Each structure stands twice: as C-alpha cells, then as structure tokens.
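worker-3 :: picked Enoyl reductase (ER) domain-containing protein
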Amino acid sequence: MSAPGETSKMEKKLTVPVCGPTVKGEPMTAVTWSGSRDIRVVEVDRPALAHPEDVILRVTSSAICGSDLHLYTGNFPKGSMTKGDILGHEFMGKVHEVGDDVKNLAQGDRVVCCFDISCGRCDACRHELYTLCDKSNDSTAQERLYRDKSGGYFGYSHLTGGWAGGQADYVRVPFAEQNLLKVPSEHERHGDLDVILLSDVLCTAWHACEMGNVSKGDTVAIWGAGPVGILTAQCAQHRGAKKVLLIDQEKYRLDFAERRLDPRSLVTLNGRQHQHDGGVAKAVRGVLPHGPDVCIEAVGFHYASTLLHKAEMSLGLETDPADVMNEIFTTVRKGGRVSVVGVYLGYVNHFNFGCFMEKGLTMKAGQTPVQRYWKDLLKKIENKDLEPRVVITHELPLEDAARAYQIFNDKQEGCVKVVLHTRFYDGHYPSHERGVKDDEDVAETSSPH
Ligand SMILES: NC(=O)c1ccc[n+]([C@@H]2O[C@H](COP(=O)([O-])OP(=O)(O)OC[C@H]3O[C@@H](n4cnc5c(N)ncnc54)[C@H](O)[C@@H]3O)[C@@H](O)[C@H]2O)c1
Ligand SMILES: [Zn+2]
Ligand SMILES: [Zn+2]
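worker-3 :: tokens ->
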C-alpha cells in the first residue's frame, strides 16, 4: 500500500483523457453504434497520443464478441451508449506510435490488446483483478447500482468509461505496457486468427474453468454454445474433464461444436427439444444422475427464454432473467460449483436462491482479467494444446460490419464468430482456404469472398 501522499501523486499521474486528441486530416474507418440494431461504418479522424503511457495501435483484425450484442440489441441501460461511439474490444494489430513512457514496445511490434483497461498499479491491478481497475473508468454510473464500479473496457459503453473501441483502423491504447501482449510475427508462426481471441474469449473460457475449478475427472455442463461456450468446452477437455455437456437452443451451433471438440467426452444437448419433457435439468440428469460437478453460464442476460421473464424485462420489472441460472442451480450436483461468465447487469426476479443455499453450492462470477492468463494461453496455442481459431466462421472487411453484426446476432449463415479485417490486414482470407472450415460448414455457411 502506498502512503496517502504517494496515492494522490499517482492518481494525478494516472489521469488519462478518454476522448483524446485526434490527428486532423488523417481519416480512418470506424464501426460505430447508432442505435438498436443500427451499426454505421464511418470516417473519423484517427486518434493521437494523449498520454506518455499510450500507444496508437494500427489495427489489423477485430472480432465481434457476444458482449457487443448486448449493445447491438439495445439491451444496455438507456443513456449508456451515445450515437457515434466506436465499438470493439477484441482486436490486434501493429504498434504505430509509442508514448515516451512505454518501454517494452516499439513501432512495428505485433500485439494483441486485451478488452479490459488496466493501469497495472492500483490496488485491484496489484491483486490481478484487472477488470476491476480503480483508475481506468471515470464514469460513476455503475455506482448507483453497485456502490462500486468496474474498470474501463474498450468500446463497451459509457458504463465502462466510454473508451473508443478497436473496430477501427486505429485505436489509442492507454497504459500500453500493461494492455498489449507481444505475439510472434505472422511470418514466423501465427496468423491473426490464431492469436486474436487471446484478447477476450479464449481467456474468458479459461477464466470460466478457473472459477469453476475444472479439474481432471470432473463432469462439466456449459450453457451456451457460442464462441465462449465452445472454447470453455475446449479448455475443460484440455484440463482433463471426464464429461463435458454443451447446451444450447441453436442446433447448428451444437453440430458445429461436435465437429470441433473431442467427441470422447462431449455430449451436446438441445434445450429446445427438452422444453416439454421436463426441461434441461432432467435431460442432464439422464446423462449424469447426480448432476455435474461444475455448471458454467456462458449465455448472458439478453437471452430470456420463458414468457414470464420476457414480459418482466420488457415492462422494466427486472433487468435480467433467471431462466439459465435457475436451470443451473437445479441441475448441478449437491455441493457443486457454479461459474458465471455470461454478462448480467442488475436485478433478477424469481431467482431460486433457496436452491443455491440448501444445496450448498459455490458460485463465482466476473469479467475476465485477461492479463492474468494471456501469456500462459499464448504458450498453449503455440504448443497446439488449445486452438481458439476453430470457432471463427466468418472473416469480413471492416466495411461489412453492419452485416457482420446482423448475421452473428440473428444466427444466420452458420455464424459462430466473426473477425473483421481492416485495410492493414495483409493475410489471405476467408479462413476456410486455410483449413478452418470443413465441408459441412461450407454447406451451412456462405461467405461473400
Ligand atoms: N465474463 C467475461 O469477461 C466475458 C467475456 C466475453 C463474453 N462474455 C459473455 O459471455 C456470453 C457468451 O458470449 P458469446 O460470445 O459466446 O455470445 P453468443 O451470444 O454468441 O452465445 C450465447 C449462446 O447462448 C445460447 N443460449 C441462449 N439462451 C440459452 C439457454 N436458455 N440455454 C442455453 N443456451 C442458450 C445462444 O443460442 C448462443 O449460442 C455473453 O453474455 C457475453 O457477454 C463475458
Ligand atoms: Zn467480449
Ligand atoms: Zn488499476
């Protein structure tokens, strides 16, 4: 802990402007939020360095995350987004300009950026709670609901600082030493698709397993076969889980997952099919009579499945549904572990808290402190222990962002994960030319390229 005098000196030094200066006359392309289901690709001036610890990153690739869909569908609280906000928090590229205090990076370095902005030296960051950084989120909006607030995140609303995102040609990265990870040059080993998901969803999948303490011999059930759920299953298998159940309501996603995960321990379960025969809990118990050791939520608040919660959410009587969490509480074994990486915002009605208490469950939840895991996970990618790129179904130019959001959200064209490329990307795409897709995916997914 620092002495009071030191803290105030540090706070002063850590004040980084969110909307920094721009370079006039150097326009860049950026993906902006303009309202519910309204994505616009526009030209704006590119960002300039605003602080000695900044880097200006020239983006090559930028993915769309399930968390972006909360913004896309207009499910974030009113006023938390402003027209023209630049989206994107899963991106990588090359260092373009370096602030004077950034010592570990040089122009031209190839880097992945994490979604969470960490200062690296506040109390939270020193405890590796990087998503809870005390210094990167100026907004006080969360305090009304939580008394405290998270750290800042790129491109993820004014609740998390209003930082410009990385679905753009350039982005300013504050505290760059802390928030950029150097990756080998693409010519040496890995293309963007191999490493970009270190910025968020691969680390989130790992975090889900860490919070559930997924260990050798465990049985694990995962709700949600989106990119996060599928990669969580991959991580659970890598950690030696005996059985992994993957649950979704979209058949194509379950079929897709079956072709990419180790079939020896995998069971997929379509929630829609079990709606009228005792539900998902009964179906899981058909496979594991005592229930899974670990249950993982990788769905998030904007998918209500029952009429009750759809109605209550639309009337503003609650912010989030209890559908998946109640299914998890009733499904997991007595004394089991629950891990929640799906995003929740606020109040939930009809929450079966008694079930949680009486069954003696343990639950952990949270946004992923990417910096805690990404170095180790890069090694696992290099050793081929993990292969996050298997979830990527679409590569599109940044200019096609509106269509990319639409097919990802509406579950069209076999979409599971989209990566957008800027004009600075010099790799070849689409990915199936390089072996990501198999024949069945080509049948279910069409790409304009
Ligand atoms: N904690 C973190 O740091 C972190 C990081 C990244 C993403 N997330 C969150 O993780 C969640 C998943 O992200 P994603 O990118 O995979 O998104 P996604 O929207 O593609 O995936 C969610 C999946 O859940 C499925 N689903 C909906 N209702 C269901 C139900 N009742 N039962 C089972 N499955 C159901 C959907 O069909 C979809 O396939 C989102 O809430 C996202 O915000 C959290
Ligand atoms: Zn995300
Ligand atoms: Zn911090």
